[in-house]
Amino acid sequence: SQKIEQNSEALNIQEGKTATLTCNYTNYSPAYLQWYRQDPGRGPVFLLLIRENEKEKRKERLKVTFDTTLKQSLFHITASQPADSATYLCALDPSSSNTGKLIFGQGTTLQVKP
Amino acid sequence: DVKVTQSSRYLVKRTGEKVFLECVQDMDHENMFWYRQDPGLGLRLIYFSYDVKMKEKGDIPEGYSVSREKKERFSLILESASTNQTSMYLCASSSGSIQETQYFGPGTRLLVL
After folding, report:
1. Which residue from B50, B102, B109 is facing A46, i.e. has the nearest CB?
2. Average pLDDT, chain A
3. Which of B29, B22, B19 is CA-nearest to residue B5?
4. A35: nearest Cα among A25, A54, A48
5. pLDDT tens, B36-80?
6. How far apart are CA A43 and CA A33, in angstroms?
7. pLDDT digits 0-9 by tens, A24-67
8. Are A77 and A49 within 8 A, CB to CB?
9. What is the pLDDT at residue B73?
10. CA B79 → CA B50, B57, B61, B73, distances in Å?
């Protein structure tokens, strides 16, 4: 069956450290993968998109990698801050016809302690 | 800035009531989506629309219907609300381009008693 999985356990790290979140998928061949941030009681906000032919993408303190062989994306936040505490969702287009539909992972909650 | 607004942040309804959730976007986006989000289950797609008067079922359409009479507005209708429809409902929009990101509204937390 098709699945997109993120670590459901919360990730607790100390301020200043690098947070690494994982997104694994099975039985999809997505052309791209997206990462979103969601704060409690709010809608998700887009962060980064990485295409299948890109190994790595950076935006300020954020870095995303995409390994289509492993069927995995890693999301890194360097020099983490308490304000980075949120739930992070990965998403991919499940169909080869690029309809614009996305399937979301359950999200990983990150807690950065000062 | 893209803005997606939802008609209510919080809503309390009784079992059997007909419920309307409205979503409006101001960026002339082609695609609009309705999701529900529940703890442990993540975001699940209920319906989406890629044009006015067009709609397609998502993964969990049972008990819901939608309406898109104007490009900027996408309504989710619960014909007869049930307690298992208590959830956070999120609307999103995206342009018609491939690989476009989705822009979400603030969500409506619906409680069905």
Report:
1. B102
2. 91
3. B22
4. A48
5. 999 888 899 999 999 998 999 999 999 999 999 999 999 999 999
6. 18
7. 999 888 888 999 999 999 999 999 999 988 989 999 999 999 99
8. no
9. 97
10. 22, 16, 12, 19
Return d(Cα B104, Cα B106) in angstroms, integer.
Answer: 7
The phi and psi torsions of A33 (rounded to 5 degrees) equal -140, 145
Question: For residue A25, what pLDDT is reported?
Answer: 94
User: Tokens 């997505």, residue?
Assistant: A30
Decide which of A96 and B11 is more confident.
B11
Mutate to test the interface with B, among A1, A4, A35, A46 (most CBs of B within 10 A): A46
Among A24, A29, A31, A35, residue whose Cα is nearest residue A53:
A31
Q: Does B43 touch chain A (CB under 8 A)?
A: yes
CA distance A90 to A109: 12
* Beta carbons of B7 and B106 less than 8 angstroms apart: no
